[in-house]
Amino acid sequence: MKRIFGLLFFLVVLVIGLFFGVLNAEPVPVNYYFGSRLLPLSLVLVITLLIGALCGAIASLGPALRMRREISRLRKEIKVSERELANLRSLPLKDKQ
Predict the structure, then answer these.
(1) DSSP readout, 8-42?
(2) Is residue 38 over pLDDT 80?
(3) Element spanning 73, H or E
(4) Nearest Cα to 42, choosing from 54, 27, 63, 30?
(5) What are phi and psi for residue 27, nearest 5 degrees?
(6) The whole model's pTM is what?
(7) Which residues lie below 8 Å from residue 29, measured CB to CB, with a gap of 6+?
(8) What is the DSSP letter of 52?
(9) Strands 35-40 and 27-32, how do they pair?
(10) What is the arithmetic mean of pLDDT over 56-78?
């Protein structure tokens, strides 16, 4: 059921995107350092969206890697603590008499 809703959502977004592309097919000038080009407005917006998503992914890469290192360090610490606890449990008890 979840897959059907996901597929329907994807199809609705695809249809809306196609209508958007058809309605915004006018060429617009795009100026960049090496020259200028006429591109459809919808293509310019999609390219801009992809560049923004890529920049966001790159910006979040640093904190994500930092958290992975922290998780790895904490897992190692847990293993050491569990090993130490197992060793303490296996020691025989000595009664004072």
Answers:
(1) HHHHHHHHHHHHHHHHT--EEEEEETTEEEEEEHH
(2) yes
(3) helix 41-90
(4) 27
(5) -75, 140
(6) 0.61
(7) 36, 37, 38
(8) H
(9) antiparallel
(10) 96
